[in-house]
Amino acid sequence: MNFLAHLALSYYSADLQVGNFIGDLVRGREVAVLPLGIRQGVEMHRRIDRLTDADPDVRRLNRSLRARHGRYAPVISDVAFDYFLFLNWDTLGPAPFHDFTEKAYRRLAAARADLPPRIHPQIDGLVRHRWLSVYTSVGGMQEVFQRMLPRLSRPEMLDGVSESLYDRHADFNRTLLLLFPRLQALANTYRD
């Protein structure tokens, strides 16, 4: 799961939502000094990732992507699941999409002072550029994958990612629809 899914799964709590957003951005000692609720959100993020990685339907989808995209198959599915979550937002989203994203932006901006300074640029960029909107279109998805290329050791493995999303549209959608209720059940264990 990527940003949109993590934020959606923890929508009912500002601290959990912030922790879910930063779960991949913080390390060791940084986590230990976060406020308790945000630390729990980081833990929740990591449990969501483990459940997703171990899910048999996700593993099956990733095996089908590996021939073309190698070790980046799980990265592709994580990012793509946000697009497919948006496509199913009326059923799976916790609030109308615009209301949801605006509230998430406000919560992240409000928590900025509690977060390590080195991740402030990610928070600021997300809020300023309204990044969550990129998950709402095929063009936005292409932009997300394009932004990843400079950070990858083998960027050529993302060649044809748009075709893979198109060719396996039904597989991605089916896998998300099977997985998301399991993730919602996990998220519900964090409710007060």
TrEMBL record:
GO terms for biological process: fatty acid biosynthetic process. This is DUF479 domain-containing protein. InterPro entries: ACP_PD. The keyword Lipid biosynthesis applies. One of its GO terms (molecular function) is [acyl-carrier-protein] phosphodiesterase activity. Keywords: Hydrolase, Lipid biosynthesis, Lipid metabolism. Pfam families: ACP_PD. The keyword Lipid biosynthesis applies.
